[in-house]
Write a structure and sequence with these properties.
40% of the residues lie in helices and 10% in strands. The protein is an alpha+beta fold. It has 7 helices and 4 strands, in the order H-H-E-H-H-H-E-H-E-E-H. The protein is globular. The protein has a 4-stranded mixed beta sheet with strand order 1-2-4-3. It has one domain: Rossmann fold, CATH 3.40.50.970.
Length: 204
């Protein structure tokens, strides 16, 4: 199993990537009438560090860890990164919210790289905890990264996820941000976010 070295995360490269992702999102926004630009921009650095700095791959190249975009209306950030990684092709994004395309304003399960259909605020945390618990029951070592918006933590649907993860051993850990999206990890091995991550991504 290989990790994308946490201590070697290149902040300058991340800034260049995110600038390009923002340009890509803006370009697409000029071709459709429905696109949540601000929600995608506000979480872009977080999603970038998950894919480029945290998620691990196995020896066969398959992803060991998974990412769940609970803040579904920010999915353009994920789409742009998945295109850059070669998971989605350019044509997929060109057909965003258009006839014949399969990328919508919220992520749908079944699209390459998408782990769950999200958009109903507050539900992603419970799904992430459930995924981690299922991996734990199967003795699979994994970390599920879940991006949550600033509103869902106030909703009651998050409480069962927190309480069940503590009793079921899913290892739910939260990295809060002030008035902005936040990153939560649900781990079958109770791993922690590395302290070496840039504070502009995980500031508390």
């Amino acid at each position: 199993m290989s990790a994308r070295g946490h201590n070697r995360f290149d902040v300058a490269a991340a800034r260049r990537r995110c600038k390009a992702y923002r340009r890509r999102i803006l370009d697409i926004s000029q071709t459709v009438g429905a696109l949540h630009i601000a929600p995608a921009f506000s979480c872009l650095e977080i999603v970038d560090v998950v894919y480029h700095g945290l998620m691990r791959k196995g020896d066969d190249g398959a992803d060991v860890d998974r990412f769940l975009m609970s803040k579904g209306h920010g999915c353009m950030a994920q789409y742009a990164i998945l295109e850059d990684l070669g998971v989605l092709d350019e044509r997929e994004l060109e057909l965003y919210c258009k006839p014949g395309g399969r990328l919508g304003a919220h992520p749908d399960y079944g699209v390459p790289g998408i782990e769950a259909s999200t958009g109903s605020l507050g539900h992603g945390l419970g799904m992430a905890a459930g995924m981690a618990y299922a991996d734990k029951l199967q003795n699979i070592e994994s970390v599920i990264y879940c991006l949550v918006g600033d509103g869902p933590p106030q909703l009651p649907t998050r409480l069962p996820a927190w309480s069940n993860s503590r009793t079921g051993g899913a290892g739910l850990q939260h990295s809060p941000t002030r008035g902005a999206p936040s990153l939560t990890t649900a781990s079958s091995v109770r791993s922690r976010l590395p302290g070496s991550l840039p504070r502009w991504i995980t500031h508390t």
